[in-house]
Structure formats: structure tokens, C-alpha cells
Amino acid sequence: MAPRTHLNTLFITSDGAYLAKQGKALVVRRDGESPFRVPIHMLQSVVITGRSSASPAALALCSEHAVAVTYMTPRGRFIARLEGPRSGNVLLRKAQFRASEHAEAPLSIARAMVSGKLHNTRVLLRRAARDHPDQAESIAPIADALGSCLRRLQVQESLDGLRGIEGEAARRYFTAFPSLLLTTEPAFDFSGRNRRPPRDPVNAMLSFGYALLASDLRAACEATGLDPQVGFLHSDRPGRASLALDLMEELRSVIVDRVVLKLVNRAQVAPKDFAVDEVGSCTMRDSARQTFLTEYQGRKATEVRHPFTNESMTLGLVPLIQARLLAKHLRGELDGYPPFLWR
Question: Measuring CA to CA, how many Å separate 332 from each of 96, 149, 159, 329, 339?
């Protein structure tokens, strides 16, 4: 297989950091610390989650090299994204728009995406039941229920029906999540998914991770020439990157959920790494964000074999591959969209 370059993401999480240009490189400066330098050709994107600033020259360098700069709150909520001129093939975007309005194309693509999500969450549950037999009794029935949802998905004839099955499967999956958290620390008790704002450390990490993953998927769509706003599973809404959210469904459990489980189960985060305000909103402190980002990048560096292309690659490259496979389907080069099925 020909060599591949896995372009990385520069995360800036510390308050008071300053992003500057130095030749053909970006430099991050902060009082009292040695400058951090990275050549621009090694980057795919920059994500800023702290109260930091960037020079116009640094932003211009990013724009010239198609490196998007995303600003997020410390909780992982998207604020803004800066990028250069839109690239990509206008014919591909027109094909995407036509497919999104077609009677059958959205249903077919959405079914494949939800199938991928259910398959991958089921794999995670079955692996957990195998590795931790003492938890198998509570995990196995949920995995079986997801199998039932998968079968029903194949005969569902409406988008609303697909969304209903996806929602049901997600609720069932998260009822099994407490059994996956192998800790006795009360702070990491999990009673269900909550967000906007998250009210406990586990949900705070899930929300933060999903926001990072959504940013990666949006970048993959744009790099491929797809419009990240026009999706098939998620309905169109002003300001929503619906296609990025569509593609993210297959990878939530494979990347983000695995990171959260590892951090909790190996005690890499502690209650002191989180803060809860007077209204019950839970926030990750800098220490938790730094630890999460390290593991997130490590997870993306994991080698996998893509089930459709049969090529070895890192998980971090999968979003781009999935966006390209979708583009091939929209151009008529593939009969259907092949989701990423975790093995």
C-alpha cells in the first residue's frame, strides 16, 4: 500500500496562549513556557478551546494552506470556524443537493449510517461482556436488543421511522453504559445521557468528545468537497452541520465512547478534574481536557483495517475515507454508501 500522511490537529487549551506565524510554521506562545512550534504542512486543523488569541498572519497562513481554525468553549460547544475559500467540485455539491431532496436517496444513505452506528455500539457492548464476564448479565440483553433494532432498520420505509429506531437504540445503549464504567467512585455514576449543559463528569466528557469528533467530520466533508450543512439523517437547520453529524453517528462509540471508558476505568481522571456550578452544570477543568485530548489523539492513531477498502489506516483517517466514499456514491461510482463497520 502506498504511504499515507495522517495530518494532525493542533489543540490549544490553555488560557492566555497566543498563536503566531513563524515562517511556514505556527508557534504557540504562553508566558513562562517554551514556545511550541509545528510546521503548517503537518496540520489539518487547529482547535482552540481556551481563552486564547491568534495573529492575523497566523490565520492567513492557515487559510493559505486549507487549515481550518475552530473555536470552542471549554465545555466543547462550537463557537466559530475560520477557513479560506471553499474548495471542492461544484458538480459534487449539486449531486449532494439533488440527493438530499430525492424521495429514496436520503432513506438509503441514512439507513446505512444508522446501521453502522448500531453495529458499532453492539460490538462495543459484546467486547465489554466478553472482557468482563461479571457484567455480561446486564450487558448481553442490551446487545441483543440492538440486534433486533438492526433487523427492524432494514425494513423501515420512512426517515422518521429510521430516526425513531436510532433514538430507541441510543436509549437502550446508554442504559448499559453504567455497566461499562468499572469504577466505585460516586462522581462517575451515570444515570443517562444529558447535555446542554452536561450535569456529571461522564456526560461532560461525552459532550466534549462528540464536539471534537463533529469538528473532525466537518473538516472531512469540506476537504472532500461536500457541503457539511446538507445531510440525510439529521434534518436541515440553520447553523447545523447536518452531514457532519450524520457521518459522526458511526464513529461515536468507536472513538469517543472508548476514550471516556478508558479514562474512567483506568482512573486517568478524578473528581477534582471537574467543576459543578450552582445550577448543576458540570465542566471539565484544564487537567481533564488535557488528559482527554491526549487520549483522543492516541485513539485516532490506532491502526485499523477498513472493512470496505481493506486498507490499513489510522482511525483518524476514517472520517476522510467515509466522506470520500459518500462522495463516490453521490457521483454514481458506488451503488450505495458503505458505513464504517468496526471489527
Answer: 11, 29, 22, 5, 16
Tens of pLDDT, residues 241-299:
899 999 999 999 999 999 999 999 999 999 999 998 888 888 899 889 989 999 998 89
DSSP state of 236: P
Q: Identify any residues that bridge with 37 across adjacent strands, giving them in sequence order.
A: 27
Residue written as grid cell 457539511: 228
Distance CA(11)–CA(290), nearest Å, equals: 9
Q: What are phi and psi of 331, to 5 degrees?
A: -85, -5
DSSP string, 131-184: H-GGGHHHHHHHHHHHHHHHHHHTT--SHHHHHHHHHHHHHHHHHHHHHH----
Backbone angles phi, psi at 15, to 5 degrees: -65, 140
Whole-model pTM: value is: 0.78
When the pLDDT of each residue in the chain is averaged and rounded to a whole number, the result is 86
User: Pick from 219, 235, 196, 194: which is nearest to 76 by CA?
Assistant: 196
